[in-house]
Amino acid sequence: MTFLTRHPLVRVARQALLCATAALLVACGGGRQDSPATEATQSRATVEDGARLNRQELAAAEAQEKRSGSMFAALDAARAKAAANAVPVYRFFNRQTSAHFYTTSTAERDQIVATLPQFQYEGAAFSAIAAAGAGLSPVHRFYNLNTGVHFYTISEQEKAQIQASLPQFRYEGVAYYASKVVATGFIPLYRFYLSAKGFHFYSASQSEAARVRTTMPQYADEGVGYYVPGTPEQVAGVANPILFVTQVPNTADFANRMSSFGNHLARPDHAPRGGDLYIRYPDGTLRNLTREAGYGSDGMQGAAAIAVREPSVHWSGSKALFSMIVGGPSARYQVGTYYWQIYEVSGLGRNETVSIRKIANQPATYNNVSPFYGTDERVLFTSDRPRGGEAHLYPQLDEYESTATVTGLWSLNPTTGDLRLLNQAPSGVFSPTIDSAGRVVFTRWDHLQQDQQADAQRAGEAQYGATTFASEAPGAASLGLTDEVFPEKRQDHTGVFGAVAGYTNNFFTPWQINEDGTDEETLNHVGRHELSFNYLGQSFLDDPALTYFASSAFHANTKNLRGDGGLFHIREEPSRPGHFIATYAREFGSLTTNQLVHFTGGAGANPDAMVVTDLTVPSRNDGSIAGGRFRNPLPLVSGTVLATHTPTEAATPSQMTQFLIKPLVAGTGGLLQAGVSLTGGIRKSISWWDPDTLRSFDGLVWELEAVEVVARLKPATRQAPALAAAERQIFTEEAVDETQLRNWLKANDLAMIITRNQTSRDRADQQQPFNLRVPGGVSTVAPGGGRVYDIAHFQLFQGDQIRGYNHAGRRVLAAPMHDPKVSLPANAGGPLGSVRIAADGSTAAFVPARRALTWQTTDGAGNAVVRERVWITFQPGEVRLCASCHGVNTSNQAGGLAPTNPPEALRTLLRHWKALPK
């Protein structure tokens, strides 16, 4: 049986197209089985070059129309009018060959449905325009005699090339009309080429094109073929533009761009060049903002090469900050010095002109990353600038691998150049942001432990050149490899209280701080007892009252976080203030990917009530995750969550070759899973020197660190709380003016810290001695009894960068507080840098500001009893109160509430201050 193949939009000059049913198998992709390979060998280069010609022609048409001025609006209006009369293009899938057949003929559609069951009807794939018109161009149709598949192009140059060099392509005339440029009422039609079989695939569906790009690498992405009538697909919940960066893949996972720590370094081997800053509009349109502003390039990366990271949007939604490296090696063996610097981008609206400017007065020869706007319009960021700017201390080295790290959070007034260190973080801070309560929330690496490189050197296992310098001063003498004094050793050992467990800590914890650097603490003062409670490690092994276990009765959270990882990329949900989403990841081996979790952490929340729950599927025992891995969650104002996703399940960085931003959609068990790529994937082909090796990449770049471009309510600037009543009582009784004292503290770069009762500890903290007594004074003992420890002194330690190695930089070591500006009341018999604990258990001390501090309580002989497990920084003029040694959440070890006594030690300190020369 034969039938007439009617194509009302096809103008065939010589004859009508007749198809027998058997012949139709050929015409729809059922041709000879040996011909595709032959055709691909002969014509692949020509076909791929045709895609280049098509892209060039579309780009030229776009540029010419933009230059046409007022004519552009008239052409756009004509196209929009024509689009209203569009006709559907129907699509079939040949199950035998995996080729698709497209037709605008309803008669042909119906005949195929009735007679050819191997052709699966897929409905109207897109639309086309039947007649020529202003602003429209003909789409030419060819029939490949070898493959039996049709080919479409709007490019006159590609048409001419095919006719001149590929005789197996029979020209069949004009199929329909479409647009070469972006136009009102039109959407892109994407084209892909399967070289193994020698045919193309076309789709106007962004989500379908995304699936092809991201899951079917055998299809070469040839970009936009042309523009057809249609309405852009909308992604549920994505109603605002999304700003994000791309990164050329680098799967190394130690001190690299995607690592958990040391990710701020700027060499090309740490952060390959070639990324860009993009914005995606709700209709799916993408703009390369850095390219529009004149930054970055394709192909060989050299002096103009860039890398970008971590955009953050202004409260108004009209501009954003981000960090960028400009420059890279332009020749082999060329070693340059590069830095991440902060830039501001504006002109984010669809029809606005983009502008990018470098932020003035930032540290010019250091890496400045993770920038964001303060509520007072200052720029806050992390940097590896030394704490005091001392070049000989650069870079600061972390407490784990002695690897370069950022030194802390910084605050800059770009206009005046006023630069302030908000906290000194010996092992780094990451991904800061301001939440709805005005808190700066970030991840901090709590790694306060002794030097493991020095331990290995002492044991003869390795030679790191570890040595201790006499001070931080330039030219300070080397003292050789001295022992550390705080905290306890990393290996089990014996002390005055018997066997002591070796102490290590490697937890990435959520923290908070005010924008002026005051009130630094873990988020709501949450501890490891509430987050990582399965095994904490007791300090004194011979005390049976101490335990490695944190009782489940003392915390609502049931999801235990591993002690060698933690919470990264923390972001608050705009639709639910006080609710946060984070990546729960390991320290190594996953490019900071894993599952996403939700946790509660509103301002003032009791840590006992803070809960971490699964948002996506948790990892298996081997670290793999069904459905792939996530990082960089972005909760939107709509409640939808976006995240960067890799389909790789295993925790193996070398396999994580694809990272794309995707919306999270409903999965099994009430959890979320990755949806379809938000962008459809962005392809780039580049080469660069590393600097010794020429490297290249051709594929989908990574999409990272998405943010929503939308105006947000700016929270009130958060201030440190006023002095509490109990402390004000002491000030009044001692006739000390609080303002005068604070001004003196600021002038001397000091702060004051107060504890009401060092013997009171949270009920869950049973890993260190908790039955405590001040000789001749207060004691706090748990109902179960047990060994009671006398505490007589409160010893403070400051973080000094005095440990060096056979490579540049210094590590922080804890040294007894010795800052010359600090004057403390006399403490006969006490250890260096200590004050006596008063009979009521209270302590008070002046401490250096803008320097990491930690502390311990000791017995009368100076032996450590209870040690602090984190570093804390204070600001000039800050008066900081901590009621208990470890803040009481609900009750202390004896069932009592947090102490409320006026601290007698404060009285002693104020009397000492009044006697000092002013």
Would you write up a description of this structure?
It is built from 12 helices and 53 strands. Strands 22, 27, 47, 48, 49, 51 and 52 form a 7-stranded mixed sheet that branches. Strands 14-13-12-42 form a 4-stranded antiparallel sheet. A 4-stranded antiparallel sheet has the order 16-17-18-19, with no helix packed on it. It folds into 3 domains: 2-229, no CATH class; 242-448 and 505-708, 6 Propeller (Neuraminidase); 725-915, no CATH class. By secondary structure, the protein is α+β, with helices and mostly antiparallel strands.
Work out the helix count.
12
Count of spatially separate domains: 3
The structure class reads alpha+beta
Shape by Cα distribution: elongated
Distance between the termini: 110 Å
CATH topology of the largest domain: Neuraminidase
Major sheet size, sense and barrel closure: 7 strands, mixed
Q: What are the segments in which pLDDT stays under 50 over at least 5 consecutive residues? A: 1-39
User: What is the overall pLDDT average?
Assistant: 92
Q: What's the helical proportion of residues? A: 10-25%
Rounded Rg: 33 Å
What is the subunit arrangement here?
single chain
Tell me the β content: 25-35%
CATH class of the largest domain: Mainly Beta
Number of strands: 53
- The CATH architecture classification of the largest domain is 6 Propeller
CATH superfamily of the largest domain: TolB, C-terminal domain
